[in-house]
Amino acid sequence: MTTAKDIQLPEGYGLQAFDVLDSTNEEAKRLAAEKPTQHLWVQADQQSAGKGRRGREWISERGNLFCSLLWKADCDLKTASQLSFVSALAVRDVIADFLQADRRVLCKWPNDVLVDGKKVSGILLETAGEGLTDPEYVIIGIGINLSRHPEEALYPASNLAELGCPDLEPLPALQSLVASLDYWMTEWRQKGFDYIRRRWLERAKGQGEQIIIRLPDEEIHGRFIDLDVTGGLKVETESGIRVIAAGDVFFAPAG
Fold first, then answer.
1. Peptide bond before 216: cis, by omega within 30 degrees of 0?
2. Rounded Cα distance, 70 and 28, in Å
3. 110: cis peptide before it, omega within 30°?
4. How far from chain centre, in Å, is Cα 57?
5. 97 sits in which H/E element
């Protein structure tokens, strides 16, 4: 049985594992206040107050992977936001490897991962520490549905067990994720965001297709054509090209 002590970490990284936390992102924020000099992974078997994008609840029962990386930043906020796509690629590769089904596993803008069109993972980026434009730390919160998923969700969901990968435990999954994220962060640092952007598009669902983007005060219908240089979603609408910085994407029904 894998324990937290068995997790192999890249140089400069630490790991803190817990039975129960309110949220791994919240624990990462508390750790950031202690000014750690290394990057820290935080993992919990269960969360009592897990959260997703836009403050939504993230169902956090035992059996799934709940973790966050407290990354000591060395870039500005605009650059740090690229980690959303870096992280999505890392998670996608982990899931595709577990399922041995590369083409079934796709990225959904901005940072979800889908298998057979159903959401199995989510990512939440936050910042911590002083500085608004140059954050001290970036927190990358990641949840992967290993053995269960919410029955009622904003987007159809599933888990890896029902998709063909039973008996996968959180800590072995974390080990794979640690290695995958380290790989993709190295690629990002060495090759830049345009490389990441192109790799993400190769693994994206819906490019060239009709999509719906729901914003707080508007619903946009159009064709997903590209990502811009910042990662914004480029959509061709009846009134022209629009670039969306944040929103919830849904895929239009066939026909």
1. no
2. 6
3. yes
4. 15
5. helix 83-99
Strands 39-47 and 13-21: parallel
CB-based contact 141:112 (threshold 8 Å): no
| DSSP-derived 3-state class of residue 87 | helix
First to last CA, the chain: 49
Dist CA 146 CA 115 (whole Å): 12
Classify residue 134 by burial, with Cβ atoms within 10 Å: 0-12, 13-18, 19+.
Answer: middle
pLDDT at position 255 is 45
Q: What's the pLDDT tens digit per position in 31-66? A: 999 999 999 999 999 988 766 554 455 556 789 999
- Is residue 224 scored above 90 in pLDDT? yes
Q: What was the pLDDT predicted at 52?
A: 52
- Beta-bridged to residue 210, according to DSSP, are 223
Write the pLDDT tens digit of every residue in 148-172.
Answer: 988 777 788 999 999 988 889 999 9
Alpha carbon 225 to its chain's center: 22
Instruction: Please give the domain boundaries of the chain with CATH numbers for all domains.
Output: 4-202 (3.30.930.10), 210-251 (2.30.30.100)
145 Cβ neighbours under 8 A, 6+ residues apart: 64, 119, 120, 121, 157, 158, 159, 160
Residue 54 CB neighbours (<10 A): 11
pTM of the full structure: 0.92
Q: Tell me, what amino acid is at 185? A: M
> Tokens 């987007």 belong to which residue?
155
Three-state secondary structure call for residue 130: coil
In 3-state terms, the chain is what percent helix, strand and coil (to 5)? 30, 35, 40
138: Cα separation from own chain's centroid? 13
CB neighbour class for 146 (10 Å; exposed up to 12, middle 13-18, buried from 19): buried
